[in-house]
Automatic annotation (TrEMBL):
It comes from Pycnococcus provasolii. It is found in: Cytoplasm. SUPFAM superfamilies: L30e-like. The keyword Cytoplasm applies. Transmembrane segments: none annotated. Residues 9-109 form the eRF1 domain. GO terms for cellular component: cytoplasm. One of its GO terms (molecular function) is metal ion binding. GO terms for biological process: nonfunctional rRNA decay; nuclear-transcribed mRNA catabolic process, no-go decay; nuclear-transcribed mRNA catabolic process, non-stop decay; ribosome disassembly; RNA surveillance. Its cofactor is a divalent metal cation. Keywords: Cytoplasm, Metal-binding. Pfam families: eRF1_3. This is eRF1 domain-containing protein. Belongs to the eukaryotic release factor 1 family. Pelota subfamily.
Amino acid sequence: PRVADTKAAQDVAAMAKFQRCLSHNPERAFYGPGHVLAAVEAGAVETLLVLDEVVRPAKAGIAARMRWSRAVSDVEAAGGAALVFSSCHESGKQLAQLSGVAAVLRYPMPELEEEDDPQRLLREYAPELVAS
């Protein structure tokens, strides 16, 4: 297999695309669990970037793992791509700095972009992730 075909190369390319989008089309680049899950729920995610520690966290409960697994499935069912990044790889470390989850959207979602209370979004779209 060619280097370009490797999982790591795919992750690097996806992270680069997200960062370009964040710089040039920020209305189509979300990060943080609240904003990303709200976009997933709306079917707006073209590419979901999620850190392995978020999907398979050793310390998190089963509810969190199930919520993120559902998000991955929802994105794929809607024709999007869902990439799970290794926390050991450089691109995974970059994603970790963005809360461990990010998304490139198919279309802008100004109503979400303007939401400045990510906890409210979490309570609405993923109450199981909100610490009680």
